[in-house]
Amino acid sequence: MITVAVLTLSDKGSKGEREDESGLIIQHILKDIKAEIKYYDILPDEKKLIKEKLLEYSSKVDLILTTGGTGLSPRDVTPEATLEILDRQVPGIAEAMRSEGLKITKRAMLSRAVAGVKGRSLIVNLPGSPKAVKESLSIIIDIIPHAIEKLKGDASECAR
User: Fold this and answer.
1) pTM for the full model?
2) Whether the Cβ atoms of residue 141 and residue 32 lie closer than 8 Å to each other
3) Among the CATH numbers 3.60.10.10, 1.20.1640.10, 3.30.720.200, 3.40.980.10, which is that of 2-147?
């Protein structure tokens, strides 16, 4: 069982002014890999708060999925907060989401999402739009169990 934290970054969502459709979509899709949602929070787009929550989660769960704050708006600081706490980046995840996303919309090139490892947790930034979350997560969902196995210390060969 993969343990998960879902963190939505939205000024309006944190004030109850917008329903968090993206966070709900993430939770629905994770059922496909039999993941257990341990934590779910909505925070405003504040780098300090995001970093604190990522650090807290990273000692408690296998996978942290963020949604929101990856664009070009001045308040979009999720990638910066994530990069400041990562031990190692996993650029292929974000590259795959952007690459496949470009087949759907040219706006995918505006995503600044990052992915990486903190301790034994995989952290992936997803876009904020419900449609983009669904598309992005569908691109990477199949590799998540393998990534988590490796982070937990699985020493078996990856070659097929």
Assistant:
1) 0.95
2) yes
3) 3.40.980.10
Following DSSP, what letter does each residue of 5-37 receive, concatenated? Answer: EEEEE-HHHHTTSS--HHHHHHHHHHGGGTEEE
Note the pLDDT tens digit of each residue in 98-111. 999 999 999 999 99
| Chain CA centroid to CA 138, Å | 12
Question: In which region does residue 157 sit, left (phi positive, over 0), alpha (psi from -120 to 50) or beta (all else)?
Answer: beta
CA distances for 63 relative to 21, 88, 104, 125, 150, angstroms? 20, 14, 26, 11, 12
Tens of pLDDT along 5-36? 999 999 999 999 999 999 999 999 998 888 99
Alpha carbon distance 66, 70 (integer Å): 9
* Residue 20 near residue 10 (C-beta atoms within 8 A): yes
134: pLDDT confidence band, cut at 50, 70 and 90? very high
Domain ranges of the chain: 2-147
